[in-house]
Write a structure and sequence with these properties.
Layout (H helix, E strand, L loop, with lengths): L11 E12 L4 H9 L5 E10 L2 E9 L5 H15 L2 E10 L8 E9 L4 H13 L3 E10 L2 E10 L17 E6 L1
Antiparallel strand pairs: 1-3, 1-4, 2-3, 5-7, 5-8, 6-7
Helix pairs in contact: 1-2
């Protein structure tokens, strides 16, 4: 369960979305959070992945609007020092967009070869089920490739439909989380 300071109980919340991209390095995330540590902020979300030795990281924070310039200055110095690309977006957003839907499922597609047409159909089926994709990742075991989609639903989803669907030579599985 997430805890939010009492000052953030309004209908809108001031947030900062931080995007970092650059060569993967073992200490990059630790250094990023060291830069953010002195500030009175709450971490709302963190996403991080590495592809071809390139790191992509997003961090969503809630903060006091008056601290934007100080946080931005420290992050720009960090990006320059670490030779990474940085983008920051500060904005006020409705609180209900920041909190997950009450139901979460993982829907996966497994195949020996992932084709764009198969993935297009897979994601269209998720969209048709009124789910919102919150995370996608790929795993591989032997020659089997699996795309895992974490999907949020506002109502209890009927996941029984997914294993019965057919996409070429792929298998679909769905489980509630």
């Amino acid at each position: 369960m997430r805890h939010y300071p009492e000052a953030m109980q309004s209908k809108n919340e001031f947030t900062g979305l931080i995007l970092i991209s650059g060569p993967e390095s073992a200490d990059l995330l630790a250094n990023l959070f060291d830069v953010l540590a002195p500030f009175s902020i709450a971490i709302l979300d963190v996403e991080h992945f590495v592809t071809r030795s390139r790191l992509i990281c997003t961090v969503l924070i809630s903060l006091n609007k008056d601290h934007c310039s100080a946080i931005e200055a420290d992050l720009l110095a960090f990006a320059n020092d670490k030779s990474v690309d940085l983008a920051i977006d500060f904005s006020e957003v409705p609180q209900d967009l920041l909190h997950p839907a009450p139901y979460l499922a993982e829907i996966s597609l497994t195949s020996s070869k992932l084709l764009p047409a198969d993935l297009a159909l897979f994601f269209a089926l998720i969209h048709k089920s009124l789910g919102t994709i919150v995370n996608v990742r790929r795993t591989q075991v032997g020659t089997s490739l699996t795309v895992h989609a974490s999907v949020a639903f506002s109502t209890d989803p009927d996941l029984a439909q997914f294993p019965n669907l057919s996409i070429a030579n792929a298998k679909i599985n769905a489980v509630k989380i």
